Amino acid sequence: MKPCPYACRSAEHSVARRNFLGRLALGAGSVVGGLGSFAQPAVAAALAKDQKRMLVINMHGGLSQLESWDPKPGTTTGGPFRAIPTSVPGIHISELLPHTAKVMHHLALARGVNTKEDDHGKGAYKMLTGRRQLPGQTNPEIGAVIAKCFDSSDKTLPGHIRVTPGGGGGRSADSAYLGPKYASIALDGAKPPQHTVKPDTLSDTSLAEQNAFRRLADDHFLSRRRTAMTDAYVQSYEQALELMKQREVFDLSKEPAKDHERYGKSDFGRHCLMARRLLEKGITFAQVSHSNYDTHNENFNFHFEQVGEFDQPFATLVTDLYERGMLESTLIVVLSEFGRTPNINLYYGRDHWSKAWSVCLGGAGIARGAVVGKTNATGTEVTEREVDAGHLFHTYLRALGLSSKGNFDVAGRQVPMADPAMGPIKELLA
Question: 123 and 257 share a domain?
């Protein structure tokens, strides 16, 4: 059987050649094809494992590339930490990442990132949308794009989850013109969203009757006055009901005690374990936050603690995804809004620096063990294969088997999924 020329050669696409009854609408920016069309349990299980997902670890504040992915020991800018070998011969990363070094063969590095944006808000916007922030223009973040692209009629849970301290289940506006259905829901990483338990005073029969009446009223109203706002209301209400039915998906206490021990007791460790649980349960996109890396003061002491807290849970998560057969279909990205200055200021800190920094990727269609881009000896300039956030955005889509040159149909207008002036980083793609 010859592989489809456009496909990612996954089990899903192999089955699709013969009896996959859904469709892959890359140009329209939507992917339809869940498990409902398949009666054979073995086929359904294979497809469930191969459903595309994305995990973003957002290192808020600006992770120092010199204390992580691109160390420069022994130089005037390098700082006190050594570079250590990894599981990929020839690739060295900071000694603050000993556990991650052992799983580097599952990962890749883009070391030539230059986003030309040193503002926190604008830098974060650019890294998450792949476009520069402009007045009067809002673009959807990568989580909303992925949730939209892999949405289907059999997906009842939200596809875009942010796991962050203090998240109580509220929705943001990060889906822009894709609509509120694909906006992120913020969870705190330990328990289900608030207000997802049926009151004891309300019986199952009463709840069912109320919802049946509500649906009749909705249908009557929508037949005459249907708008995007009314559709969003109906969708949100129906999804809330599904959250009530499936709230255990978001209950971290259901994970074994040994897994809690492996991930550690920090908030970040719990959040990584929650991300694994969400991805296993069918959530398309999960973002975990780790902060605050804005180290204008005491950069080295802070990175010693903070990167140390990141290292083991992240490496454990990568290992678990691999051992559970999910890494081939799960794209992992570790990003920030920018890096830190090579020059060390008088407070032993590093300032904002977008001119030459690094992003880590892995899984899905990413070439394992690849390093693309290079900086000079002191890390002040990109000397090989400079890339921007737009190139990375295209790369994310391609790594998940999507056409990054496709469009969304927004009220009859074709809107590019990614910046049409850019393209993917081909050297990072397997």
Answer: yes
Number of domains in the chain: 2
Within-domain flag for 32: no
Choose among 42, 69, 155: nearest CA to 334: 69
Domain that holds residue 314: 52-191+251-428
- The whole-angstrom distance between residue 344's C-alpha and the CA centroid of its chain comes to 31
> What string of pLDDT tens digits covers the 430 residues of the chain?
333 333 344 444 444 333 333 333 333 333 333 333 333 444 444 445 578 999 999 999 999 999 999 999 999 999 999 999 999 999 999 999 999 999 999 999 999 999 999 999 999 999 999 999 998 889 999 999 999 999 987 777 889 999 988 776 667 889 999 988 899 989 886 666 665 666 767 677 776 777 677 677 767 676 666 665 666 656 665 666 666 666 778 889 999 999 999 999 999 999 999 999 999 999 999 999 998 999 999 999 999 999 999 999 999 999 999 999 999 999 999 999 999 999 999 999 999 999 999 999 999 999 999 999 999 999 999 999 999 999 999 999 999 999 999 999 998 999 999 999 999 999 999 9
Is this model's pTM higher than 0.85 or not? no
Are residue 214 and residue 359 in the same domain, yes or no? Answer: no
Biggest CA pair distance of the chain: 72
Distance, CA of 171 to CA of 167 (rounded, Å)? 10
Q: Nearest-5° angle of CA 24, CA 109, CA 321?
A: 55
Residue 91 lies inside a defined structural domain of this protein:
yes
Both 133 and 199 in a single domain?
Answer: no
Scan for tokens 């030309």, then name that residue: 116
> Do both 158 and 82 map to the same domain?
yes
Asked if 343 and 223 sit in the same domain, the reply is: no
Q: Are residues 117 and 235 in the same domain?
A: no
